[in-house]
Amino acid sequence: MESKSTGLTSVGRSVDETLRQHTTDVAADMIVMGACNHPRLQQRLFGGVTRSMLKDSNISLFLSR
Question: Which residues of the chain carry a pLDDT beneath 50?
């Protein structure tokens, strides 16, 4: 198994959009990421990357909390 860590810049896009686009660009098979939970008000105001990735991702996710 080969893994690679990459730093990305969002350039005006949301974090989840940036991650999904990068996985397409590099033909990744899986995303490994941390998952955390924030207070409901904070998630409503700013969104939740983990929730969005679970909802809209077309690639396998390995989440660790």
Answer: none
